[in-house]
Description:
Radius of gyration: 18 Å
Strand order of the largest sheet: 5-4-1-6-7-8
Order of helices and strands: EEHHHHEHEHEHEHEEH
Oligomer: single chain
Distance between the termini: 11 Å
Number of helices: 9
Structural class: alpha/beta
Amino acid sequence: xxxxxxxxxxxxxxxxxxxxxxxxxxxxxxxxxxxxxxxxxxxxxxxxxxxxxxxxxxxxxxxxxxxxxxxxxxxxxxxxxxxxxxxxxxxxxxxxxxxxxxxxxxxxxxxxxxxxxxxxxxxxxxxxxxxxxxxxxxxxxxxxxxxxxxxxxxxxxxxxxxxxxxxxxxxxxxxxxxxxxxxxxxxxxxxxxxxxxxxxxxxxxxxxxxxxxxxxxxxxxxx
Length: 223
């Protein structure tokens, strides 16, 4: 089946959002008179969401009594500063240009809630270019369930087998495979130190966005 669309996970795949998360975590520590911690400690937890990042930032058990207040403060700060330092990964802007030049559709399927994902896409000038943005708000089950990808494909009018789903987490690949999409795992994203994208069962693994060029060329020619 010929490729007609490329769907991306957002954080760690399409966009490098870690700098905003890191800045917020460091600011929260500074406000409490705590020294800065290594940025990598936060970056390594991005795929785990707010709970994982706050837990790492304060070396705190999520079951601790004061944890929920910190998590809510983190989310409030992120709502106000979600696209200050966030940018497409190196090479991604070129790749999107080439996808559009090839007359392919592209979109985003992310576990990031709509209240953060939508303004980020708008502020980076990507909202008007993306054919679809599917968030947890739109489905009953997020990735690794395939519902999100099935909905994205339905909204852009294609069969799942006509889409390539690109992600930096094992749940992305699980969701893509379950939906019937082709899958690409990226190693440049927010990979937990104990994870290995080459073990996720993706159709292809790439180390840089522009390596997807060859994947798209093969898919387009049916090679």
